[in-house]
From TrEMBL:
GO terms for biological process: phosphatidylinositol dephosphorylation. PROSITE patterns: PPASE_MYOTUBULARIN (PS51339). This is Myotubularin phosphatase domain-containing protein. Residues 61-249 form the Myotubularin phosphatase domain. It comes from the Eukaryota. GO terms for cellular component: cytoplasm; membrane. Pfam families: Myotub-related. Belongs to the protein-tyrosine phosphatase family. Non-receptor class myotubularin subfamily.
């Protein structure tokens, strides 16, 4: 985050503020377009001695050019198996008419990559059947044709929903055709107990443990440091992530 090579202990940071910054100043054609104009973000760090440091950076993978470069890096440039989809509204009336009913997924960036045979209407329907509307999106592909996608689980009522099953089968078939082996993709299901709240709580406990105000406090914690770190639950989460990553590889 800092251009200089500073070694900053966590205990010296009082608070961190984050805010999106518009990359261009113009009136959006429609309200949703205003969201896509935030291509940069600004972070202000306040230290305990009241010193302030501001960092401005680009928002990663929030534009079509970034995803096009990533597809090129993975050897998929020009591949008809994948396409860049957009949540941003466009200026033309025909496209606006098509996208007026588009379901906006707030936890996804403005642009993402999906199988090439999945159209806008199907994305809208998929958003209805995946939890939090997080349908499968492309993340990475190796040069030998293996691709990685991520999504939430299907909604609980999809087992008896023919449309959800049909859409899920189509995604699997699209991924199969995109792979050189021609095999159906392997599905990794994460533990439902590993929630965002649990991860945040474990990280907060680890951060508090690493934040010391004096040498005496550090010496007291250092005596049983490994036990204290283990008690935060962070190591268990890291171990679980590594085991799932190993399974994916």
């Amino acid at each position: 985050m800092f251009e200089e090579q500073w070694e900053i202990p966590l205990c010296s940071i009082h608070s961190i503020y984050y805010a999106p910054v518009k990359s261009r100043f113009r009136k959006p054609a429609v309200p949703q377009e205003e969201i896509s104009s935030y291509q940069r973000f600004e972070v202000v760090i306040k230290f305990r001695d009241s010193f302030m440091h501001t960092v401005t950076a680009e928002v990663s993978f929030n534009d079509a050019k970034s995803w096009a470069a990533e597809l090129l890096r993975c050897g998929l440039s020009g591949s008809y198996h994948w396409r860049i989809a957009s949540q941003a509204f466009h200026a033309s009336e025909r496209e606006r008419y098509q996208q007026e009913t588009q379901k906006f997924v707030h936890s996804y960036p403005m642009y993402y990559v999906v199988p090439g045979d999945i159209g806008l209407h199907e994305l809208n329907r998929m958003a209805e059947h995946w939890q939090l509307s997080r349908f499968p999106v492309w993340v990475w592909s190796s040069l030998d044709g293996v691709s990685l996608l991520r999504s939430s689980n299907l909604a609980s009522n999809t087992e008896v929903n023919w449309e959800a099953k049909s859409l899920n089968d189509k995604v699997l078939e699209c991924v199969r055709r995109a792979s050189k082996s021609g095999e159906l993709p392997h599905r990794l299901v994460l533990n439902d107990e590993v929630t965002v709240v649990k991860i945040a709580a474990a990280y907060d406990r680890l951060r508090r443990l690493c934040s010391v105000d004096s040498h005496e406090q550090f010496a007291a914690r250092d005596k049983d440091w490994l036990a204290r770190v283990n008690h935060t639950g962070w190591l268990q989460l890291v171990s679980y992530c590594l085991s799932k990553a190993s399974e994916a590889v």
